[in-house]
Amino acid sequence: MSVDKKSAFDWIENNRELIIGISDKVWEFAELGLIEFKSSGLLADELEKHGFKVERGIAGMPTAFIATWGEGKPVIGIMGEYDALPGLSQKKSPRKDPLEPGKPGHGCGHNIHGTSGMAAAIAARKAIEKHKERGTIRFFGCPAEENFSGKVFMVRDGCFSDIDALISHHPSTMNEASLMSSLAVNSVKFHFYGKASHAGGSPEQGRSALDAVELMNMGVNYLREHVIQDARIHYIIEKGGDQPNIVPPYARSWYYVRAPERDQMEFIYNWILDIAKGAAIMTRTEVETEFLEGSYNVVPNRTISELIVKNMREIGLPKYSAEDLMFAEEIANSISPEMKIAQLKKSKRPGWERLVDKLIDDEVPDPWGEGEVSHGSTDVADVSWQTPTVEFGTPTWILGTPAHSWQAVAQNGVGIGHKSLIFAAKVMAATAIDLLTDKDALNKAKEEHRQRISNKKYTSPIPPDKKPPLDAWEK
Ligand SMILES: [Zn+2]
Q: Where on the phi/psi map is residue 34: left (φ > 0), alpha (ψ -120 to 50), or beta?
């Protein structure tokens, strides 16, 4: 190991206030996917100030950017996200109290996600430059993780084609560099068109689009018996008509279909498309299918996960102030013990029972979960099919905190969140330095990736001509 990581850690320590300030600003902006103009601008400008060459407006998304420093191989990628969630506005308070009711909030901690990555990229650059090593550090500013799968567009446009390995951080309740996969997903809307008529006076003239939506849902609910255990199908009815005395001429449902492997998901998805057609035939209506987005399942990488765990242990976990702990205790009052135990159990972390009486995770476990699937989906998955990729977690929220909750929003903007941010930035900088300078480790990660992918082929889930839905929030 020729590069001393200390210069990277020193940069992070000396710029603690700057880094936390950026994360807090992104928290305040709380911008939704594809319109994160101020947030992406802030991160891109900071990278530019530190000598990164920045390309903005990548893959048809004005808020996507790529920042590059250095030259030649290897090329190590770091990803950052910065989109917020609708309706989750919350003050930096341990009690439920919206800042602006109904407005967005950072319920998944992407204010920290983007900033930890930005800080890690700059810090790794400082160390590599000092030691005159060769190699390239590339930061990916990735918009719209929560709703429009920004990274899938970036993958389709070849943004990751020359990356040798990639790391990413995500706020969590735990220190984790897990080996679990995720579910492949498709998001799709069904538009049914019928014929309006007076529902009392001349119902025989009408053709109900709502009937079609309901019959389709019924068909899908019968299908549930015949899908694999780990599949997930969920829907909402977005539009069901205007009032009862009009036979609804138009109705719309929105479905997510998920399964552990892309082909398993597609099998169920195609069956559902047939059920939609069947519902249209039964009701003499027309159906139009609108595919929105899709993503793959995560390909884990043990080699990189082990590097992350090693760096977490070497750096040492954050120390919390009395103020941090008081805030944590108050948040804990809003989380029931049953909820906390259920969450710990679901994590499948070996020895999770030890965490039941703890407020904050204080251990760094070995990577776990090989062969297991967590039941969410992420567009990080599509990147993990292109290059060895690991997204790791650090405790940003007290144990038991559900993601996408007001409790998470609050913690993403205060002491515990700030400490997670600084710790994660150091872990990521150290791991990037390892991958840039330790040829054996990088080759091992790449070989593992080749073996995990083996003969499976990645085909973009989105059609070649589909553009990111830049106007989605205006609809
Ligand atoms: Zn997230």
A: left
| Nearest C-alpha neighbor of 246 from the set 202, 190, 286, 283 | 202
CA 52 – ligand 1 centroid, Å: 25
Segment 431-444, tens digit of pLDDT: 999 999 999 999 99
- Coil vs helix vs strand at 336: coil
pLDDT digits (tens, 9 = 90+) for 45-73: 999 999 999 999 999 999 999 999 999 99
Task: Give the global pTM.
Answer: 0.94
Q: How far away, in angstroms, is 280 Cα from ligand 1 center?
A: 37
Rounded Cα–Cα distance for residues 324 and 332 (Å): 12
Span from the CA of 315 to the centroid of ligand 1 (angstroms): 24
Specify the length of the chain in residues: 475
Exposure class string for 315-343: b at 16+ Cβ within 10 A, else e: bebbebeeebeebbeebbebbeeeebbeb
Encoded amino acid at 154, one letter? M
Alpha carbon of 202 to ligand 1 centroid (Å): 50
Q: Is 159 helix (H, G, I), strand (E, B) or coil?
A: coil
- CA of 286 from ligand 1 middle (Å) equals 37
CA of 3 to the centre of ligand 1 (A): 32
Ligand 1 centroid–CA 81 distance in Å is 8
Ligand 1 centroid vs 440 CA: distance in angstroms? 31
- Cα atoms in the 13 Å half-sphere on the side-chain side of 323: 8
How many angstroms is it from 109 CA to the middle of ligand 1? 7
Q: Is the pLDDT of residue 180 over 80?
A: yes
Distance CA 193, CA 196 (A): 10
